[in-house]
Amino acid sequence: MVVTRGFVGRRGVGARNLPPGQYDVGDDWPVLTAEVTPNVRTESWTMTVDGLVERPVTWTWDEMLTLPTSDYRGDIHCVTTWSKFDTHFTGVSLDVLLEAAGPLPSAGFALARSTTGYTTNIPLNDLVDGKAWVVWLYNGLPLTSHHGGPVRLLVPHLYFWKSAKWITRLTLLDEDSQGFWEVNGYHDRGDPWLEQRYQGD
Ligand SMILES: Nc1nc2c(c(=O)[nH]1)N[C@H]1C(S)=C(S)[C@@H](COP(=O)(O)O)O[C@H]1N2
Ligand SMILES: [Mo]
């Protein structure tokens, strides 16, 4: 009998949680980047939450580092079908950033924007209650530029294209406004457990 990690993991027999149509990529961490990897300097990087908020807020790198940090330990799922188990990211919960800006009642959606111009849309409900972060450490070390360093968005319960690398802005909106991949046919929400890969899924 061949026993693979997939059947006897530390979660117990048969317990690896793989969304439908996904496979375990193992220790690899593929890089998926549509644009040229930018060299984002922490000295000039800022993070802004604006749009339908009581007060738009911008944090510099130094200001971001003074916020209370929290960790994500768990899995990530790319729509190209790889999933990576047991990742460990550190950053600040989006709850902290959103609380500072004060979303207006009319805000139901968000558009994340990278320094490169990459965008992705996410329902606001998917960014609150401890489900999303902006992160700068992976396994305790600075996030490399290829993986979105110095700072990327992390929304691990949705397909990983929602986790914009080199994030610099989150704009709250009253209507959903499609980002880069969504305009090109990918799903507006992207729940891997519901296999929401493409528009209409
Ligand atoms: N700015 C930016 N963010 C991005 C992407 C991108 O091309 N540009 N690709 C997305 C996709 S499709 C995935 S799967 C993940 C890949 O992150 P990684 O390269 O760190 O694995 O980043 C997402 N965020
Ligand atoms: Mo992806």
Structure description:
The protein is mainly beta. It has a single domain, classed as Alpha-Beta Complex (Sulfite Oxidase, Chain A, domain 2). Helix content is 8%, strand content 32%. It has three helices and 13 strands. The strands form three sheets. Strands 3, 6, 7, 10, 11 and 12 form a six-stranded mixed beta sheet that branches. 33% of the residues are buried. It binds the ligand Nc1nc2c(c(=O)[nH]1)N[C@H]1C(S)=C(S)[C@@H](COP(=O)(O)O)O[C@H]1N2 and molybdenum atom (MO). The ligand Nc1nc2c(c(=O)[nH]1)N[C@H]1C(S)=C(S)[C@@H](COP(=O)(O)O)O[C@H]1N2 binds next to loops.
SSE map:
Elements: E1 8-9, E2 12-13, E3 23-24, E4 46-51, E5 57-60, H1 61-65, E6 70-77, E7 82-93, H2 94-101, E8 109-114, E9 119-123, E10 133-138, E11 141-142, E12 152-154, E13 167-173, H3 180-183
The chain binds ligand MTE and molybdenum atom (MO).
Molybdenum atom binds at residues 32, 78-80, 160-161.
